[in-house]
Amino acid sequence: MSSTSQKHKDFVAEPMGEKTVMALAGIGEVLGKRLEEKGFDKAYVVLGQFLVLRKDEELFREWLKDTCGANTKQQGDCYSCLREWCDSFL
Amino acid sequence: MVDLGLLTDDQLKAKLLQYGVKAGPIVASTRALYEKKLKRLMDSSAQASQHRVNGTRDAGLYSDNEEEDGREEDEDKESSESEQLRSDTIARTETSKTASRTGTVSQSRDFYPRCFLPSAGFISGKIQHKSSDATQNESLSQSGSPYRSFSITQMVEEIETRFSPQSKQTEIERRSGSRSKQTVDSRVLRDFMRLDKDTMTGRSLCLTSPSSHQKLTVTEPVTDVLSEMFPDTARTPTGIYATKRRPIKGAAGRPVQFKYPEMPLLSPTSLERQEIQQRLVPLWVQIVVFLLVVCMLYLIYASMEEPLSNTFTDLLEDLQEAALIFTSED
């Protein structure tokens, strides 16, 4: 079982509100910029995409890869971050 | 080949459903993904119909770039597959999948990590009919009284089969047959724990299975050291003895009084100190006795006719003599 990063813990601890995409685990400066260019400027927009994909892991991972070029680890971090957030707050 | 871009959203969804994929809403952002997925499904099914080679699928399942069709099919057919074991790799992906869901527990291979997979095929056939309590090592701590009757022997069997599936098989049946008549708890756990120790030294059990069987029976008379040390403690099924720890005062801002009102607030050491302070003889009596003894000794010393000599008195006497001699010489 891999341990979660501090970013993950911070994100999952509270409602995301108006946090930027950079607040998501696995999404740093570079990926965040790319997502913002595509129109996903807030974390909740990415959440929207996650939910539209019915929280499916593979589809979401693929979408992340296609949209911002995230590698496997980043995809996994973002996915688990969002999933855990949904488990707590959705 | 149908151009997937020409399909309407509904048609795309229907096509995905043909492959058993329950797609979500096909909107602008998701359409591309679903088209890709459908394309992959169609390609893989075309490939599969041409040549059934397990290896390619396995390679696809292993790789990081998503070769999802194999996994997608597994995800949707897992209920039908629950009784068969097609291949180790598919079982592995199922393991990863079902770990995330609250899947039916009859699939015992859910609980076996990848490193143990070679024996998973062996175990799944053996254990499938048993109940869900026999999970991995963690269940050892949970084996309370309701599970005692069968899960411990089950776990021992699992551990043994895991390390040497072929050689141990008959032994387990022999041992379980003999054991079922006896009470299970501590002896089985000792064997279990001994097995753990043994396996840490490089699976010696596999090689020396008949000798270890004798060894276990020979060393049975050796009693548990802990039970000798603490004969008063009640036996627990897991062999783990735990006492309630004194709570850390003020931990997480919670004052101890409110959290554990029934516990004594003082530590054991301060309680001991309190006990010591309650002496048999009160303090003032001891001081009076001490003073009496001092007085008595002084009186005895004072009543002596000749004072005791020590080096200081000798020195004083010498000085006095010297002074007398000086004054008498004048």
UniProtKB/TrEMBL annotation, chain A:
This is Barrier-to-autointegration factor. Gene3D superfamilies: Barrier-to-autointegration factor, BAF. SMART domains: BAF. The gene is LOC113038518. It comes from the Eukaryota. InterPro entries: BAF, BAF_prot, BAF_sf. It is found in: Chromosome; Cytoplasm; Nucleus envelope. Keywords: Chromosome, Cytoplasm, DNA-binding, Nucleus. Belongs to the BAF family. GO terms for cellular component: condensed chromosome; cytoplasm; nuclear envelope. GO terms for biological process: chromosome organization. The keyword Transcription does not apply. It holds the Pfam family SAM_BAF. GO terms for molecular function: DNA binding.
From TrEMBL, chain B:
Residues 44-53, 96-105 have a biased composition (Polar residues). Coiled coil: none annotated. Residues 79-95, 170-184 have a biased composition (Basic and acidic residues). Pfam families: LEM. Residues 1-45 form the LEM domain. Residues 64-78 have a biased composition (Acidic residues). Residues 44-105, 160-184 are annotated as: Disordered. It comes from the Eukaryota. The chain crosses the membrane at residues 283-301. Keywords: Membrane, Transmembrane, Transmembrane helix. SUPFAM superfamilies: LEM domain. This is Lamina-associated polypeptide 2, isoforms beta/delta/epsilon/gamma-like isoform X3. The gene is LOC113069096.
